[in-house]
Amino acid sequence: MTETTEATGRDSLGGATAPLLGPIRLGIGLLQGLGLFWLHRSADNDLKIWPATEPLLFGPLLLIVAFLPFVLLAGVGRLRPVTLAVWTAVAGVALALLGLHDIARQSADTLRQSPFLSAPVVLFSAVALFIGHHLVAPADMERRRIASFPAYFDTTWKAGVQLAMSIGFTGAFWILLFLGAALFKVIGLDFLEDLLRKDWFWIPVSTFAFAIAVHLTDVRDGLIRGVRTVALMLLSWLLLVMTVLAAGFLGALPFTGLDGLWETGNGTSLVLAAAAALIILINTAYQDGRPDNLPPVVLRIAVRVAAVLLTPLVILAVLGLSLRIGQYGLTPDRIIAAACALVGAAYAAGYGWAALSPFWLKGDWMRPLERTNIWTAILTVALILLLFSPALDPARLSVMDQVARLERGAVTPDKFDYAFLRFESGKAGQAALARLTRSSNTAVAAGAVAAQKIENRYDVRLVDEEARAPAIEMWPIGSEPLPAGFIASANRSGDLDHCQYANLCLATRRDLDADGAPELLIVGHDDIAVFVPDAEGWRLLGRFDQTCRQSTRSDPREALRTGRLRTVQPAWPDLILETGQQVARFQPDHRSACGPIPAQTVPLVASGRPAP
Fold first, then answer.
1. What is the pTM of this model?
2. What is the pLDDT of residues 490-527, one digit of tens each?
3. Which end of the chain has a smaller Cβ tally under 10 Å, C or N?
């Protein structure tokens, strides 16, 4: 494309007005569509033809055909031909190796259905390819191994806007096609609707439309830069909002404690997501660091504060991840989360240094941020390549850790997740399961042998439901245990799923309706569920929810432990309709349902004895 980049001041190679650039890009889009159609048709369950019959070939081909054309679309006319050829070859080999390893590590059970590839390898391959391309392109434009930061900023954010607009164009294109099909159908012509359902049509047309959008947005370079400028301006002011929210969250933690965060079960991912949002918004305010792009004073202050807040957020994420790993060991998801936390720590260190360094070092505003972005981008690509290769294969490392926990007694044989080895960790897990069948511990060997006989991952939970029961503890301590079969029958609809991991629930027997037969109350971190016996075991009768909670909420478990759980007679009794033998129950208006606590309350009695 013919452009003079703001970063380098020289014309890009090739130029968007080059006569052959448009046909080349459209040809790339069409060939990509035909390739995806070929792979899609070969994987059809009714046909099952080559290459879908060879997963070791199909997986790498799918990654290459799905992602490598984007390198060509973004690189043609911008990179020198030699650089484009070398980078395309390197990217293609990397995608092939990632796909090959992902297929090779899986067991035969997981390779029964195409596309065979696991979701993480597809997602992170795209991320690594995007970052890698925008490390190569600016360096090639400036003829340097490491380009200037303005060049990286200009290229990356322009590509991001271009990608978003091209996806939007493709989506709008299909909306119009569906609208046209509906119009024709109204007058009795179904040919367009039928055409849109044909895979030989919709797959190539989608990639062709995307290639058209890429070329059109590239020709209108000024439009892209204008949209980018507006987008960055709007996003930069959102930094104020996110900074206040993050600061408020961290400031409230000393008063609320960390229990609520860990009880969510996804506290680490939430904190990392908040850190990622801050990182993106900081860059929208800093932009390329040039003096003429200096943001207003209020945003400069927000950038410094947000950069400092990254460190406690990442520390919280690491603490939460360490807690989970210490309690339950490594899993593939936790290993990937650890890699994300490492990247977050790199950003936090660099941004924190940039925010604080002006107090004792002379230099431009937040200048160390630039080096942090470049080197952390390289770190991210390296981590992705390591994670989805034999070097740091999450499944293999998880199997090693879980088996080690079993062997040293950190988890008992009846609580060990044999199904993880059987179904979720590929060949490494199945090999470990085979070794466990020869264990000298008879309970371990029996569990491993039973898991090998299961054909479905969820059958294991059904066979050994009690061994994998939700975390429920009877209260008061020393009470009779849970009734036999309670877990299996009460959790038929997932009513006990929230009693997991750190979300320990308390179970207590209480006669709430004074009929002489105590109900079983499951007291969680947010509500109280009431279960009663029925013909099939136990069923959920209802829940007590904190409908009147304000900015803070009480933990019903703590109220039960300290004897602050009391009953109160309803102010509005039921009305009996004797003619139809029906009960009419008063339903308060939720807008006015939250009133003062009645003065007359009754302690909750446990099976005929006072609550502790």
1. 0.74
2. 877 777 877 765 577 888 888 887 777 888 998 887 77
3. C
